[in-house]
Design goal:
The longest helix is centred in the C-terminal third of the chain and has 27 residues. The N terminus is likely disordered. The radius of gyration is 19 Å and the shape is globular. Helices cover 61% and strands 8% of the residues. The chain has 262 residues and is mostly helical.
Length: 262
């Protein structure tokens, strides 16, 4: 943990947002020719969620007093790493590696589950460190799912699709027969399957980065300006946070991913 808080500062969080846009902005012609699918809607959604996540994390790190809130800073750094993973997943996807991109998404969901559960009960964070980082992610996700829908389902999709070795991976369309020749694609899926798989994983990426933004907003709520996903309420004299499934931002995500998480 850095003792000098200035080591965590950036001069302008907007600079990082602009950098993300440059990183993920492949020319439209390259996307169309290489993948065969238009991912512009999904890409725009992912970029927006990552931009806001980066902005809130950096705002939090720049204002949090490390000596007083070391756990919060540690959580923020885990979320920052997860946001970097989101950028990596988008880059892999845009270059035609949907299977490999999906392998990264499970990491993001597990970080989200850890932070959400820890915000609900600090004991979860203490247990995480007490177990040398070997957390029971299924239990953490179960706790997180009591306030935020779909998180366990997304995690399950990632696990079944790519994280664990399964017969599915031996039947992926990596080769395409044309006439009497079999063309093998070393880098990615072959033929029309590439567009289909990229489109599917792009929607999963939208759902995952949305979950990341939700966790970031919960941790950094006091610095979030107008919240998009959470309401702060009083219950029996105590402050509680309630996720709003009717929020405009959540509904936008469900429309983008359509049936992929239903």
């Amino acid at each position: 943990m850095p003792k000098d808080q200035s080591a965590l500062r950036v001069t302008d969080p907007g600079e990082l947002s602009a950098l993300i846009e440059r990183i993920v902005a492949l020319p439209a012609s390259e996307k169309s020719d290489h993948i065969g699918a238009d991912l512009s809607t999904e890409t725009a959604f992912v970029v927006r969620t990552l931009e806001r996540s980066y902005e809130l994390i950096l705002r939090y790190l720049n204002q949090a007093e490390i000596t007083r809130n070391a756990d919060g800073v540690d959580m923020a750094l885990h979320l920052l790493n997860a946001a970097n993973t989101g950028v990596s997943g988008l880059l892999l996807l845009q270059h035609g590696y949907p299977f490999q991109a999906s392998m990264l998404l499970r990491h993001i969901i597990e970080v989200v589950g850890l932070v959400q559960a820890s915000c609900m009960d600090e004991q979860n964070w203490e247990d995480f460190h007490g177990q040398s980082g070997k957390a029971n992610y299924q239990q953490l996700l179960k706790v997180a799912a009591t306030v935020v829908p779909a998180i366990r389902e997304i995690h399950g999709r990632m696990s079944n699709y790519s994280q664990h070795i399964s017969p599915l991976q031996g039947s992926l369309p990596l080769a395409e027969k044309i006439g009497n020749k079999t063309l093998v694609s070393v880098a990615a899926y072959a033929g029309p399957a590439l567009a289909s798989e990229c489109s599917k994983v792009a929607k999963w990426l939208c759902a995952t980065t949305c979950q990341l933004e939700i966790a970031v907003e919960r941790l950094t709520y006091e610095f979030a300006g107008t919240p998009r996903y959470w309401r702060k309420e009083q219950e029996d004299g105590r402050v509680r946070f309630a996720f709003d499934p009717e929020s405009r931002a959540w509904k936008e995500m469900t429309q983008v991913v359509d049936a992929e998480i239903s």
